[in-house]
Amino acid sequence: MNPTKRSIQFRWFILVLLFLATTILYIDRAALGILAPDLQKSIGWSEEQYGYINTAFMIAYAICFLLMGSIIDRIGTKKGYLLSIGIWSVATAAHALAGRWIGFAIARFSLAVGQSGNFPSAIKAVAEWFPKKERALAVGIFNGGANMGTILAPLIIPGLVLMAGTWRVAFLWTIPISLIWMVLWFFNYNRPGQHKRVSKEELSHINSDSESTESSERLPWKAILPHKGAWAIAVAKFMADPIWWFYLFWGAKFLNEKFGVNLKEIGLPFFTIYLVSWGMGILLGGFSSRLLKRGSSINRGRKLGMLACGICAIPVVFVPHTDSLWLAIALISLAAGGHCGWSANVFSLMSDIFPKKATASVAGFGGFCGAVGGAITAFGVGKILQNVGVDGYAIPFLVAGCGYLIALLLIHLIIPKIEPLKL
Prior knowledge:
By secondary structure, the protein is an all-alpha fold. It has one domain (10-190, 220-414): MFS general substrate transporter like domains (Growth Hormone, Chain: A, Up-down Bundle), CATH 1.20.1250. Helix content is 76%, strand content 0%. It has 15 helices and no strands. Helix 2 runs antiparallel to helix 6, helix 7 (132-164) runs antiparallel to helix 11 and helix 7 crosses helix 13 (325-353). The model is unreliable at 1-7 (pLDDT under 50).
């Protein structure tokens, strides 16, 4: 094979590494939730203490999204991603040393510190390696690692724990995988213009946007936050991310209370939901990319893509009112797919509006807003269910069905026309 033909696809190898890192992240994040019922019995923490453990994660995740994004913009994508996965790998292993709930809270806090750097690093890498017309598709693909990790964790972790005879293995088995990833990243990642395996043809393709000649000087926060685009992204994340957290935190609980699905039976429904949502995320993420390739403006392409995602979420409002388990699964899968497509478009919107040197900081700001929204929603849903019972699920599912379209309306009011900033 001609070396040029082989090297012209190297950006897709970088995308594979982003996908794998996100998969590892979600496996490490999901382990505690899978083991929580057994750990609660063996270690003896209360429901309140388990709440403190999750609160520690959310607080650190929100705060460090801001800090990590700025750090990554300062030190660069290569070093930033290595720092991120290095911290969260050590934090994951620290779970195995915990013997009381406070130990898990400290480990969980540290895990959030490291994992808060994943998406700012990945978004910055996509901005560096892909032209605008391919970014939504690229983000949809690497963001599928969230679904892959969520699918693999309940399939692998219980078997490993039963084979090893200890829950601690659940927090240790990904460490060698993370080390292999770090070696691959260290020896293969660089900016395209400085990479030996990038052909002239691919470099020209990557730099086909006008921003390719921009200065590499890092933008300070005061140059980012005054712009409406940053607040449009904040709204998009603040309103949409909590819906995804709702599915993750209360999905299994709802299926159990509504349809009697137990732990042994949850595998197939969850496998279906996250597999379908992954495929739809790629499809819907690529929809706006196809519109841009056909000549649509960024404003029209992104907003139509986000509209399609919002429409997919609407039917989820009927989930609490159906008596069919698999109809509920289908509606949740459709809505979760809409969320994955929405996330792909929002992440791409960051690099559509802001220059490459600011994307990690903007992603960090958006992630902070999403985490704050998630914390508020978690508190609200808990109060509703405590006071209303299973019928109270109708309220969060109603919000989940309407939230995206309301967010899109607000985004349109904040930035009627999406266009790159000249900073």
